Amino acid sequence: MEKKTTIYDIAAKLGLTAATVSRALNNNAKISLNTRKLVLETALEMNYEQNKLALALKSGKSYNVGVIVPRIDSNFFSTVIRGIEEELYPKGYHVIICQTHNQENLEIEKINSLLNVQVDGILMSISNADLEEDKGFNKLLKNKGTPLVFFDRKKDIKGVSSVTIDDFKGGYDATKHLIEQGCRRIAHLYNDRKFEIFNNRFLGYRQALLDNGIEFDESLEIETISNVAEGRKSARELLGRDRPPDAIFSSSDFAALGALQEIRERGLGIPEDICIVGFSNEPFTKFMELTITSVDQFPMEMGKVAAQVFLEEVSNIQDIKIAKNIVLTPELIVRKSSLKT
Amino acid sequence: MEKKTTIYDIAAKLGLTAATVSRALNNNAKISLNTRKLVLETALEMNYEQNKLALALKSGKSYNVGVIVPRIDSNFFSTVIRGIEEELYPKGYHVIICQTHNQENLEIEKINSLLNVQVDGILMSISNADLEEDKGFNKLLKNKGTPLVFFDRKKDIKGVSSVTIDDFKGGYDATKHLIEQGCRRIAHLYNDRKFEIFNNRFLGYRQALLDNGIEFDESLEIETISNVAEGRKSARELLGRDRPPDAIFSSSDFAALGALQEIRERGLGIPEDICIVGFSNEPFTKFMELTITSVDQFPMEMGKVAAQVFLEEVSNIQDIKIAKNIVLTPELIVRKSSLKT
DNA sequence: ACTTACATTGCAATCCATTACAACCAAATA
DNA sequence: TATTTGGTTGTAATGGATTGCAATGTAAGT
Which of 78-137 (B) contact A at CB < 8 A? Predict the structure, then answer.
């Protein structure tokens, strides 16, 4: 473990000062060509590499950003992160990831933890719908030096930028599509509506019904959790009703899959008897034999755009910044599970 | 953007020295109870928070680790990363992620980049099979201060620890299972055998044939790339043969899926006519109606174990460290695609 | 020959926290 | 009373790089 060479080592070897070496390495105009060449050569020879930590301390920029997500092992989040990383790395940033697993305390804790390591910004998808009350979060907000950008699961907070998709439109389009397929009793499996995204999908669903003269039936609206087992459970419930639905729009692909499995096990046909539409366009929806219609959220682009918003914000820290709320347009991908021939 | 308070601010307010404040905050024994209490209170009051960057520069430990993977938006890698993050965060580490997209130059570049930001270690799955030649890589190896741990896709390099699964056993078990199902003409779709993992799966496959008295037929061994389209292509090729196979063992779930789709489109039955086994136990393999037999690699555990190996290595930097090569045991998950009743 | 100006380089402070070593004061001991 | 001792706190260096200002030297201008 030979210790790394510093600009002091180079300076000593050349009978110069660290200041001069620093300037030479940074192509500062005030250094003679000779000296610069000498320094550059010596630096190469001694395997010099800038210690970014020292630079960060001095400059106040760590060139690290923190990304906080509920979990990383989900296609949606890992794809967003991919987008963020690809957008930010060329600009010199590194991405630190944190997971919360929907635990309130972890969310606050990780924000603080990131702030302590002096990240230049935080991009996050909230996992705790009541976040704003918390002091750890407020601290970040007051701390106007470190930009905050929400993506996907945001909170409507003044002065905080966000990148989301138009979940209302997603819900609306999905429902409208089902109506166009001739469905009239369209059930909706929704997730925790304290989150804007889920509430908006729900509202889009209702609006589509309204616009098409279909009265909504609250008994067809069931709250679920985003996994296969819960989707099955909800489907079971729906199928037990006096008048079962002829379509299910789920705000989660996993719940949609569960419903699909339950329905087929009961001998019902998809899409003949019941159409199904999910949300997120998870990879498996197109891999199955009975492919599942779903709403694509363009996670990669969402990540890239969130990164761009962050970049804009860091570059005008001192200016009064106006929060930017970017809304991407989702796309309904129609597949077999809802396409009646 | 009020600037953060430092120990100097606290010291000034109390008429003390930064040194004293530092000691008080760190519960150093040599500080009087009074002073400590005073400092602690004032620190709270002034919203003091330790600047980890300064600490890192002073101590030489950044408490950051770098994780390099080909891409993060794959279930396998994101799950490994999840394991790493969950294991390391409680110990005070943050995880920086880097993707290479299998580009050689990026791999070297990102290693250097991580080294420059003074990560305390690097955990990586190589994406470039010829990595060892490169000087950026050698630098990391010589730089014994920063531990390196390979996971999954490793290179056999003296002194470098690794955590992998027993791919030979994975390939062997998969093939043996197919033989037990009565298959005799078992094709193998393998990926680039310059990688140990793929070569070992290949060797396991051959050994299983050998052990069961089945002569292997090189025409049944086809190189593919891990995606659906390539899997289809390979299947098409195999089905065009004079004597098509009665089973396919693919070293990738995606290629297996492609093969499955191609086979069914041709009206052949799975598993009746052709059995299929994939590798990785991607989520979709169990979601499909025709579930796919696959080999689970326990990515979460792999991540956790890799993190543990790293932790061990950082704690004995000065000691001569003996590389640890941990091999996890994979598990064949038998599903419909290969289970003849 | 003397001043002016410019081109280079050095000095020292700064970013923030830690820590070996020195210094100080008061109480206890000889 | 003089001295040792222990308990506290201060001094200053350290980690590595950057940068405003000062200083030096040299060539050009008058």
Answer: 78-79, 81-82, 85-86, 89, 94-99, 112-118
From chain A, the residues in CB contact with B1 under 8 A are 143-145, 317-318
Closest CA relative to residue B203, chosen from B235, B225, B234, B175: B175
Q: Bridge partners of A65?
A: A95, A121
* Two structure tokens written together for A183: 């469905």
Q: How many domains does chain A fold into?
A: 3
pLDDT in tens, B188-243: 999 999 999 999 999 999 999 999 999 989 999 999 999 999 999 999 999 999 89
Question: Is B46 among the domain residues?
Answer: yes
Q: Which residues of B touch A78 (CB under 8 A)?
A: 72-74, 78
Indicate yes or no: strand C within 7 A of the C-beta of A60.
yes
Mean pLDDT of B238-259: 96
Indicate whether B161 and B129 sit together in one domain.
yes
> What's the pLDDT at A129?
74
Q: What is the mean pLDDT of residues B6-31?
A: 90
Look at strands A275-277 and A247-250 and give their pairing.
parallel
Give residue A138's domain range: 60-164+299-328
Supply angle C-alpha A118, A72, B302, rounded to 5: 105
B232 with B246, same domain: the answer is yes
Question: Does residue A183 lie in a domain region?
Answer: yes
Across B88-115, b (16+ Cβ under 10 Å) vs e yields: bbeeebbbbbbbbeeeeebbbebbebbb
